Amino acid sequence: MSQDQQAQQKVDFGQLSEQLQQQAQQVLAWAKSMGASDAEVSARVDQGLAVGVRQRSVETLEFSRDQGLGVTVYFGQRKGTASTSSLQPEAIRETVEAACHIARFTEEDPVAGLADAAQMATEFPDLDLDHPWALTPDEAVDLALSCEAAGLDQAGISNSDGASVNTGRELSVLANSRGFMGLHRGTQHSMSCVLIAGEKADMQRDYWYTTSRLPEGLETAESVGAEAARRALSRLGARSVPTCQVPVLFSPQMSATLVSHFMSAIAGGALYRRSSFLLDALGETLFPQWLNLYEQPWLKQAPGSAAYDRDGVATRENHFVHEGQLSLYQLSVYSARKLGLETTGNAGGVHNLSVSTTGQSQEALLGEMGRGLYVTELMGQGVNMVTGDYSRGAAGFWVENGEIQYPVSEITIAAHLKQLFSQLQAVGADTDRRGNIRTGSWLVDGMTVAGS
Question: What domains sit in the chain, N to C, each tagged with a CATH number?
Answer without folding.
Answer: 3-233 (3.30.2290.10), 244-450 (no CATH)
